[in-house]
């Protein structure tokens, strides 16, 4: 009704109209005496939502066996390596073909790092060697993607390193190019079969 330092109050009614009437007091008493409706369940908290979601996810996913430290130590990183005779029978699915190309690239990278003129750069050669090594490792597990990876990177090596190698005519880079080309041809035959 007036101004107070902490609030504003506005009233369009007179002070007498602001007083509760007899009917309003009876209505308030009747409402208070009426039975209360059943309590609504409280809304779920963040914690209950998270635990419910985790329980639902756990029920949908298959159980994953847990590994102990002894399980990790007892399992080898490399599966059983195929015999060298597999290289004669199906060289495209043998990891040794890609590993031979990788070894040639790494050897040439080591010699190139010494600063020999006419050799390809050491860093790209080392990367190609590591990629061929990875493709050979991949071949141990997947006989379709491993050879295709080695073939793709072999074609890339021939495109990027071939012209400079042929122009400089140094023995080790030419040997590396010939080895990578042979490996690429073998892997491409496997890919297109």
Question: What general form does the structure show?
Answer: elongated
Structural class: mainly alpha
List SSEs in N-to-C order.
HHHHHHHH
Overall helicity? 55-70%
Q: Kindly, what is the distance between the CA atoms of the first and last residues, rounded to a whole number of angstroms?
A: 95 Å
How many beta-strand runs?
A: 0
What integer value in Å does the Rg equal? 39 Å
Count of DSSP-assigned helices: 8
Strand-residue proportion: under 5%
The biggest beta sheet, please?
Answer: none
What number is the mean pLDDT?
Answer: 79
Q: Flag low-confidence runs.
A: none
Structure keywords:
193 residues; mainly alpha; elongated
Can you give a write-up of this model?
23% of the residues are buried. Helix content is 64%, strand content 0%. The protein is elongated. It is built from eight helices and no strands. The termini are far apart. The protein is mainly alpha-helical. Helix 5 runs antiparallel to helix 6.
Topology, pairings included?
Blueprint: H1 22-33, H2 46-60, H3 69-74, H4 85-89, H5 95-113, H6 122-141, H7 145-168, H8 171-192
Helix pairs in contact: 5-6, 5-8, 6-7, 7-8
Give a brief outline of the structure.
The chain has 193 residues and is an all-alpha fold. 64% of the residues lie in helices and 0% in strands.
